[in-house]
Amino acid sequence: MNNFVYSIPTTAYFGKGQIQILGETIKTHGGSKVLLAYGGGSIKQNGIYEVILEQFRKAGLAHVELSGIQPNPRIESVEAGIRVYRENGCDFILAVGGGSTLDACKAIAAGVKYHGPVTDLFVDESGISSKITAVAPLATILTMAGTGSELDMGGVITVGNDHKKKVVLHPLLNPKFSILDPEYTYTVPEYHSMAGVADIFCHLMEQYFTPDAATTVQDRMNEGVMKAVLEEAPKILTDPKNYDARANIMWASSMALAGFQFVLGKPGFPFPLHGMGHELSSRYDMTHGVTLALLTPAWMRHTMSTAPEHLPIFAKFARNVMDVREADDAKAAEEGVRKLEEFYSGIKMPANLREAGVKEEDLEMMAAKAVENGKLGILTSIGKEEALQILQMAL
Amino acid sequence: MNNFVYSIPTTAYFGKGQIQILGETIKTHGGSKVLLAYGGGSIKQNGIYEVILEQFRKAGLAHVELSGIQPNPRIESVEAGIRVYRENGCDFILAVGGGSTLDACKAIAAGVKYHGPVTDLFVDESGISSKITAVAPLATILTMAGTGSELDMGGVITVGNDHKKKVVLHPLLNPKFSILDPEYTYTVPEYHSMAGVADIFCHLMEQYFTPDAATTVQDRMNEGVMKAVLEEAPKILTDPKNYDARANIMWASSMALAGFQFVLGKPGFPFPLHGMGHELSSRYDMTHGVTLALLTPAWMRHTMSTAPEHLPIFAKFARNVMDVREADDAKAAEEGVRKLEEFYSGIKMPANLREAGVKEEDLEMMAAKAVENGKLGILTSIGKEEALQILQMAL
C-alpha cells in the first residue's frame, strides 16, 4: 500500500428536509451575500427555489443569482459567475443542481480569488490545479446524483469551439457543506437518473481496476458500494419515488468520490474511461454517464485481451461484485462483463455507440483527441491506436 | 434510511515516514507548546520518541510531557494531564500510543477548556457530552491498531474504585490530524495485535446488527471492511512485519469508526457488546478486544434464539462476510457464528470466559453492572437477565 493523505473536509447533511439548516450554516461559514447559482430553472418548478429564498430571509442573507448553467458547463458560465460575484461583493457561493452546476461553481469559487485568466487554474503538470491558493466558501444542494462533485475536490469545465474538457482539482475545492435530500431527485427523468447511476458505477470501477497495491480495505469497500448500486438502481426504474433507493444511489454517488477514498494507497488513476467519454460528450453533446456505460465493456474486453496478465482483477470483479461463480479466471472475467452489459441494458442505456448516434467516421478524430494530452489508462497504456480499437469495439 | 450528518474532520497522514509532517502541521494548527502524552515508554525503545523531539526542534516547538498513561486509562491520568497542560501554558496536545492514550487525551483536550470537574463531560441524557463547547487542538500518532480513536469523536475513561467505564463523545473531539504509520505496529505483541483485530471486528459488527433501515451502501461497505479484516489479520500472525497486512488492519481500524460511517442512517447503536465487555475489563483488567471476542458469539446465538425474527440479518452476515453458501437462514446464521468462532480461535483469542480466568460467581454482579445505566442492545433489549444469560453462554 502506498502512502496517502485522507481528508474529507465537506460536511454532508443527508435526508429529508435538511435544507432547513441552510441559512444558519452559511452564516457560520462567514457568508452574508450569496451568489446563488443554478441551471435551467427546474428548482423554480419543484419548490426548492422558494425554500432557499425563505432560508436567506430568515438568516438575513442577501443574494444575487446566476442561472442557466448548462450540462457540460462552459468556461463562459464560469467567467460570468466570477463577474457577478465580484461586481456584487459576494462572499459565499451556493450551487444548486447536478454535477454541472456544482463543477462550474467550483471553478467560480477558485476564479474569484485569482487575479488572472481562470484557464490558468486547470490541472497542470503537478497533477492538481497548483495555482489555486484560495477559494470562496462554497456549499451545494444536490438535485441529481451521479458526479460525486458534492463531496469531492474536482470539477470538469468545457472550453473552446472544440468543446475540450478541462479539470479543476484542488483540496480547497471541497464544498464547505452539501445538502443531500433524496426527495429532490424524485423528478429527475429516468434517462438522466440512470445516466447518473452509470457515472457512479464508472467512478467506482476506475478506482478499482488498477495494478495491485494490496489495498484490501479500499477494494472491499469499493466492491460494497458497487454491489449496493447494482441492487438499488433498478428499484428507481420501477418506482421513481422509492425514497430508500434514491437515498442509496445518492449516498453511493457521494461515497464513490469522497476523498477519492477507494484509490488511496494506489499508484495514480488517469481515469481512461472518463478521458474517452469526454470526447463523446464533446462531439455529440451526449450525457456524460451514458458515454461511460457505452465504453466500459469495450474497455474491459480490450484490456482482458491485450493484457491477459490482468485477468485476475477482472475475475475478482466478476466474483465479488457481479456474483459470478465460475472458477476459471478468463471465463469468470468474460461472464462479469456480460453481466455488467445486462445491468446497463436493464437500466436502459443504449447498447452501443451506433445506437447512440455515433458515426464511424468520427471515431479516429475522437481517439486522437482523447489522448492529445498524453496516454490514458493505468492497467494498460492507451494511446491513439488503443483508443480507436476500444471505440470500434463499442460501436 | 434515516437522516444523518456525515462529518470526518480529521486528516489522516497514512504510511511510512509520515511523521515528517508532524512539526509543521502542529504549527499550522496554532500549536507552539505541546503536551506530549504517551503510555509506558515503549516509544523510547522503538525510536519514535527521538523522531518526535527532532520534529519539535525543527519546527521550534516547546513541549512538556505526560507519561505513564495506562491501558483502560483512569480519570486520574486525565486530571493529571489537565493540570500539566494548564500549569505549563500548553496550546496543543499530541497523543502517542494506542487507544488508551488517545482516549485519555481526548478527555484532557475537553477538560482544559472546561471550568468544572472533568466528570461533567461524560455522555449525558442528550446522547453526547453536551457540556463540551471547546477543546484544545489534538493530534495523534497511532502505535497500535484497534480502537479507531484516531479518526473518531469518542473516548472511554475508567472511573472510581469499581473501575466504571465512562464515555466522552463530541464532534469537537475528533483529532485535527492523525499520523498512521503501519511500521509503528510491528513491535506490538501478537496477543495485543489480535485483540486489536477483535476490537475492530466488533466495531463493525455492532454497526451492522441493527434493525433494517435500508442502508444498503453503508452495510455493503461495512461488509467489505469485515472481509478485509478476515483476510489480512492472519497474515500478521505468520509475519508481524508484513507491511501491507499491518497497513490494512490499521486502515480498517480507522475506517470502522470514521464518522461512525457505517451506522449513519440507522436507528441508534447502544453497542451491547462493548457495554458488557467493559465490565469484564473492569473486573479482571482484561484486554478490551479480548472481551469482545469472548462475548460476540454468545450474543449472536442469544439473539438468534430469543428473537428469531432477526435471523435474516445473521444469515446475511454469514453469506456476505463469512462466505457461507447455505440457503436456509437458521442454518446459515449458525454456520456464520461457527466460522466467526473459528476466526477468533485462529487469531488465538481464548475460547471462553473460563479459559480467560473469569469466575462463574462474578457473572451476576457483572450482568447487573453492565445494565445499571439502562438496557443495552438494539436488535433486542438486554436487561440484567439477558446479560447474565449471554455471560453464561460465553462461560
TrEMBL record, chains A, B:
Entry keyword annotation includes Oxidoreductase: yes
Any one GO CC term of the record: cytosol
Keyword Nucleus: no
Molecular functions per Gene Ontology: alcohol dehydrogenase (NADP+) activity; butanol dehydrogenase (NAD+) activity; metal ion binding; methylglyoxal reductase (NADPH) (acetol producing) activity
Domain Fe-containing alcohol dehydrogenase-like C-terminal positions: 196-394
All residue ranges annotated as the Alcohol dehydrogenase iron-type/glycerol dehydrogenase GldA domain in the record: 9-182
CDD domains: BDH
Coiled-coil annotated residue ranges, if any: none
Record keywords, A-Z: Oxidoreductase
Database matches in Gene3D superfamilies: 3.40.50.1970, Dehydroquinate synthase-like - alpha domain
Protein family per UniProt: Belongs to the iron-containing alcohol dehydrogenase family.
Protein name in UniProt: NADH-dependent butanol dehydrogenase A
Source organism (scientific name): Citrifermentans bremense
Lineage of origin: Bacteria, Pseudomonadati, Thermodesulfobacteriota, Desulfuromonadia, Geobacterales
